[in-house]
Structures are given as structure tokens and as C-alpha cells.
């Protein structure tokens, strides 16, 4: 079985079924709420909060001191090494916080690639390179923000946790105070509310129980919110540049794939034109020259040659139409993508059904989808031995997804220079993802997902 995804894997999705016509596999159901998971979440946040508070206090003092000293002495150049030391210390504390969040909170915080000094740079430039890296300053800002967040969120979470224990501890403490303190010194909320003396103890116990229940019921959402606050701030300051770098890398890969696909397509078009229409036109030119020579001597033979020439020109026209489908098919421009896919299914040698609603898609996406379906149907007709093919086009959010599944022999492989490799390059040039699943004797499924904003 061959499975390939370009330019990135479809993370978080279940693997496709061996049956090309099987519906998508449902995602795993969410975990059920249990007291153990609830308590573990609270415990993890409190553990992370205390560690972040201690780490933040040390980091805040060191980083703020170094940066302040560096800024105040930068005019005499002594401050530059101090600033470098400050951002490097901040980077170390940021890495420690990444590790804490990953181990305790399960937060994925990938580290952006640092800016490197160019080869051959001098010692001074290499020394000052960290100051030119935006992530160095984001790490420094994170050290300050993390400490301030911990100062607010840890006492809040701790107070809420202690308040939740009032469900049991409140009534017990009210009963103990009633037994140990004189009535004159035990002024509870019930007495302040004017409740008769004989009912003050039950009312105080009930009120404290209700307050404890309120804290208990809201403890989980409060802790989830505080956790999300720390995670969001960390992603924004510690990993936002990683996402930008990955997006830039995907764009560069897409452009490279586009250039490669365009070069391959041009070479293929040149080869097809040379081997097909060009040879036929050369033969037609030679036949017309023969007709010229035979027109007076042998009119009947000249008529026969003219008929053959007309057939060759008809075949040439068919070849040109076939080649033009991969460039700018007229039906796609005139009648839309759904009609163009229906026409492809109609001329396919293998019976093909199409599910393609009328969708508002950018022109380059429509051409990409058309190309994927056209090439897939051609490959299936040549190699799959299939009896039926299904084509399905849907739009999911900002992506257009087309899926071509046949019931043939399977075993398709991605080979350099092959049709599937060219198809993958074309999809990658649109910043899309192509997946080919082809288990032996279970058919082939080709799925392309192309972002409409590519």
C-alpha cells in the first residue's frame, strides 16, 4: 500500500479505510468526566503554578536586572554584552517553562529556529546576533508576563480550591466554634441577618455549605480558564514565530513544487506535442505534397491520400483537445467545475459517478481540482482495471476536497517522474495536500485538499 501526503501530513485524522467507498472513520469520542480526571487537572495546574511562581520570581529578578543594567550602560558599549546575557538567560527560563508546560499541562510549545550569524561573521557580530533575534525579546517578555500571571492565577486557584473544601470544612468549623467560643464572641452571618438564636447554627452551617458548593462547582471551569490563559500566553509569546516559520517553509516548498510541476508539465507537453500532433502535421504536409504531385497523373490516388490526410488532421485535432484539457478546459471556464467534472466522467472509459455540488471556488482551485480528477481518471483507466470510479467534491471550511476512489487492483506507487508524482507536485504548488491510498486488491483512493486562500 502506498500513502503519500504533500506537503504535510493530515495530523489528527484517522487513517483511511482499505475500502475506497467506506465513509470516513469517526473521531475518537471525548473522555468522560470523572472525579479522578477533575482532581488531576486541578492538581496539575496547582503544581505548575507553584513551580512557575518560583521559577518566575528568579527569572524576573535576573532578567529584569540584566536588561536594566544593559540598557543603562549601552551608551558606553559595556551594556551590549550585558543585554546579550539578559536575553540568553531569558531564553533559558523560557525553555524551562516550555518543559514545565509540556510535562505538567501537556502543552505543545515548539521552539522557533534561532537566527544564526552568517558564515564568516566576526566575533562581535556573532556575539550580538541574539539581540537581532525577535524570539530573544519575546522570551524576555514571557519571563515577565509569566511571573505576573503566576502572581495572579496561583493565589486565585488556591483560594478557589480552599473555598471548595468549605463544603465540608465550613459546617465543621461552625460547629467547632459554637462549641469552643462563648456565644458573645461567636457572631456568625446568621446572627447578623437577624436569624433567631436557636436557628443561627443550622443557618450558618447551611450558608457555609452552599458557599462551598458554589466554589466546588465552579472550581473546574475556573482552573480550565486559568490553564488556558497560561497556555494561550505561552503559545503567543513562545511559539508564534514557530508557526510563522512553518508557514514560510510551506510557502517556499509550495513554490518549489510549483516550479518543478510547471517544468515537468512543460516538458511533458513538449513531448506530447512532438510525439503526437507535430508528427501528424508533418505527415499531413508530406501527404499534401504527394496530392499535388498526383493531382494530374492519378486523381483517384490523390483522392485517397486526401482522405487519409483528413483523418490524420482529425486525429491531430483530438490530440490538441486532449492536451488542452490540462491547461484551460473551455467547459470549466464556460459552465463551471461541476459541469467540467461531469464531462470528464462521461468521456472516461470506466463508468464514473460524480458528486459535485455547485461551489464558489477560486479559479486556480477549480483548475487544480479539475487537473487532479482528469489525471486520476486517466491513470485509473490505464492501470487500475477498475469497474467503477467515484468522484466526490466537497468544501470543508476554507478547503476544497476532492476524492477519487476506484475498485481496481490497487498497488499504485509514487515514483519520481510518474503521473502521481506530477499530480502531487501540482497540488503542492497550490499549498494543498495530496494523499494516495492504494492497498493491493482493494482499489485506489486519491484525495486532494486545496485551501481556497492559497
Explain what this protein looks like in three dimensions.
The structure is a single chain. Strand 3 and strand 4 form a beta hairpin. About 5% of the residues have low confidence. It is elongated, with a radius of gyration of 36 Å. It has a six-stranded mixed beta sheet with strand order 1-5-6-4-3-2, with helices on one face. Helix 1 crosses helix 7, helix 2 crosses helix 4 and helix 10 runs parallel beside helix 11. It has 454 residues and is of the alpha+beta class. The chain has three domains: 218 residues, no CATH class; 59 residues; 123 residues, 2-Layer Sandwich (Heat Shock Protein 90).
Number of strands: 6
Whole-angstrom Rg: 36 Å
Number of domains: 3
Biggest sheet strand order reads 1-5-6-4-3-2
The computed structural class is alpha+beta
- What profile does the largest beta sheet have? 6 strands, mixed
Q: Roughly what percent helix?
A: 55-70%
Strand content: 5-15%
Q: Please mark out the parts with pLDDT under 50 across 5 or more consecutive residues, or reply none.
A: 6-28
Mean pLDDT: 79
Shape: elongated
Straight-line distance between termini: 30 Å
Helix run count: 12
The string of secondary-structure elements, in order, is EHHHHHHHHHHEHEEHEE
Give a brief description.
By secondary structure, this protein is an alpha+beta fold.
Q: Would you spell out the secondary-structure blueprint of this structure?
A:
Elements: E1 5-6, H1 35-73, H2 79-105, H3 123-132, H4 134-164, H5 166-180, H6 189-192, H7 197-297, H8 299-324, H9 330-335, H10 337-347, E2 352-355, H11 363-384, E3 389-396, E4 399-406, H12 419-429, E5 433-437, E6 444-451
Amino acid at each position: 500500500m502506498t500513502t503519500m501526503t504533500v506537503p504535510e501530513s493530515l495530523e489528527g485524522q484517522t487513517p483511511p479505510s482499505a475500502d475506497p467507498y467506506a465513509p470516513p472513520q469517526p473521531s475518537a469520542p471525548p473522555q468522560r468526566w470523572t472525579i479522578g480526571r477533575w482532581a488531576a487537572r486541578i492538581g496539575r495546574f496547582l503544581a505548575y503554578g507553584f513551580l512557575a511562581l518560583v521559577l518566575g520570581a528568579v527569572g524576573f529578578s535576573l532578567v529584569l536586572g540584566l536588561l536594566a543594567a544593559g540598557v543603562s550602560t549601552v551608551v558606553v558599549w559595556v551594556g551590549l554584552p550585558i543585554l546579550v546575557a539578559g536575553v540568553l538567560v531569558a531564553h533559558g527560563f523560557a525553555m524551562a517553562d516550555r518543559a514545565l508546560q509540556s510535562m505538567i499541562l501537556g502543552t505543545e510549545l515548539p521552539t522557533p529556529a534561532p537566527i544564526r550569524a552568517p558564515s564568516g561573521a566576526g566575533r562581535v557580530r556573532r556575539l550580538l546576533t541574539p539581540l537581532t533575534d525577535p524570539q530573544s525579546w519575546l522570551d524576555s517578555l514571557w519571563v515577565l508576563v509569566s511571573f505576573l500571571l503566576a502572581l495572579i492565577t496561583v493565589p486565585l486557584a488556591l483560594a478557589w480550591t480552599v473555598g471548595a473544601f468549605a463544603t465540608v470544612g465550613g459546617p465543621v468549623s461552625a460547629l467547632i466554634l459554637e462549641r469552643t467560643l462563648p456565644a458573645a464572641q461567636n457572631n456568625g452571618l446568621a446572627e447578623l441577618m437577624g436569624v433567631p438564636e436557636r436557628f443561627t447554627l443550622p443557618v450558618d452551617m447551611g450558608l457555609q455549605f452552599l458557599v462551598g458548593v458554589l466554589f466546588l462547582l465552579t472550581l473546574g471551569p475556573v482552573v480550565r480558564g486559568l490553564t488556558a490563559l497560561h497556555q494561550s500566553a505561552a503559545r503567543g509569546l513562545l511559539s508564534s514565530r514557530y508557526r510563522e516559520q512553518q508557514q514560510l517553509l510551506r510557502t517556499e516548498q509550495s513554490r518549489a513544487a510549483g516550479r518543478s510541476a510547471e517544468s515537468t508539465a512543460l516538458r511533458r507537453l513538449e513531448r506530447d506535442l512532438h510525439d503526437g500532433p507535430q508528427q501528424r502535421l508533418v505527415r499531413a504536409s508530406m501527404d499534401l505534397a504527394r496530392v499535388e504531385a498526383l493531382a494530374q497523373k492519378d486523381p483517384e490516388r490523390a483522392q485517397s491520400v486526401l482522405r487519409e490526410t483528413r483523418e490524420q488532421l482529425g486525429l491531430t485535432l483530438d490530440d490538441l483537445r486532449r492536451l488542452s484539457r490540462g491547461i484551460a478546459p473551455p467547459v470549466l471556464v464556460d459552465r463551471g467545475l461541476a459541469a467540467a467534472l461531469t464531462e470528464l466522467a462521461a468521456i472516461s472509459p470506466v463508468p464514473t459517478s460524480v458528486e459535485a455540488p455547485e461551489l464558489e471556488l477560486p479559479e486556480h482551485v477549480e483548475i487544480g481540482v479539475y487537473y487532479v480528477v482528469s489525471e486520476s481518471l486517466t491513470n485509473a483507466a490505464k492501470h487500475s482495471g477498475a469497474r467503477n470510479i467515484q468522484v466526490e467534491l466537497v468544501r470543508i471550511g476554507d478547503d476544497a476536497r476532492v476524492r477519487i476512489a476506484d475498485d481496481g487492483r490497487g498497488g499504485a506507487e509514487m515514483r519520481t517522474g510518474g503521473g502521481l508524482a506530477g499530480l502531487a507536485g501540482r497540488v503542492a504548488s497550490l499549498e494543498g495536500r495530496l494523499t494516495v491510498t492504494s492497498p493491493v486488491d482493494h482499489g485506489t483512493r486519491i484525495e486532494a485538499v486545496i485551501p481556497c486562500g492559497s
